[in-house]
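Hello K.,

You asked for the raw outputs rather than the summary table, so here they are, unedited. I folded two proteins back to back in the same session to keep the settings identical. This is the first:
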Amino acid sequence: MILIRFAFLTDEKLLDAYQKAIELQLSSQFIQILEEELQKRNLKQHTSTFNIKVDFGAVEQ
């Protein structure tokens, strides 16, 4: 189990990191970790203002 601490991030930086992770189509696992932290901080409602289309598509092997 990987334990990631986000206590050092301000709410604004966490929201910025989440938005950038979506824009760059980073790992869905990483995005999920960010979403869980957003949920803990009751910030999930702020993500609905992001106008981002996510397309993870098929992973090449």
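The second followed immediately with the same parameters:
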Amino acid sequence: MKRCMIVDASDVIRRVARRILESQDMVVVEAANGREALAHCDQKVPDIILVEARLPDMAMSDFLHNVQLNNAKPQIVISLIRLDIGAIMRAKRAGASGYLLKPFDRSHLLGSLRQSFGSTGNKRPTMTAA
């Protein structure tokens, strides 16, 4: 079973993403900011991290760097409120594998995760958009 962490200051975004991902038989952990997310990663690094591009407490590049200090390679998808090519490219250079625009629905979230897994050559998670 895949483990996913949702990092977003909005409890609504976390709740919607949790509902969608749990319906795909994923174990979901939530964090409201980067420090809380890194504390979760110290316990166990998830397979997938969905993280908002503008964390309230740290720069995205610092967050991505710290996640990778655990010698783990989770798939990291950043979420943005508007298309920002510069932010996407900086995140990809720092280790993110994809992006997702907010607000999202079931098909967008699952499609983004499928694309992220496909672009890295890792085994894709089993997800349906039903």
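The chain has one domain: 3-120.

Happy to rerun anything if the numbers look odd on your end.

Regards,
P.
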